């Protein structure tokens, strides 16, 4: 009785949503008292979705009743991406000129900085030592930045670093950072390589300052032959 209630299920969808019922897809028993009939849904914007109609009937009943009519995604349904809060949708590179992006409330990457004392002798020299900012990077903020740089495009495990035997730590084009981050990272100033990028000391590339010049470069041993003085003439016609 439950499996044979396809027409009752189709009529329930028509009553619920009008003429949006497509081909019949089959039935599955949920338990001895309920079954689900499925139809292809013909609803704009819901390609691959299905109408699922649950019918119920207690053992020995002479008819079934419709318990539920729902629109459910099928195996090929187009689904919306998982919802993310706005703050988590922003990705590196999304910021464009004119955009404003405030730090998160209670950002663990930041801690209170040096507060001006009012003494001109102290306050004027404070910026030279990195003071004078309302907030500064916390130890946790430095740690997560170091981990991100170490594992990123300019870290020791990148494809570029693995393709060379030389490392940035002994390259003349490296300018180390100040503070604790300067023990592991610096800025590359080679315009033909990672110019302006923070690189791990274990990173490396083929433009290292100690890269030897390839053999065979320089002036040739002999002067090139000047073929501009050759007189070109056509071959005589055959006899």
TrEMBL record:
Domain of life: Bacteria
Phylogenetic lineage: Bacteria, Bacillati, Actinomycetota, Actinomycetes, Mycobacteriales
Organism: Mycolicibacterium fallax
InterPro entries noted in UniProt: DUF3027 (IPR021391)
Pfam family, one: DUF3027
Protein known as: DUF3027 domain-containing protein
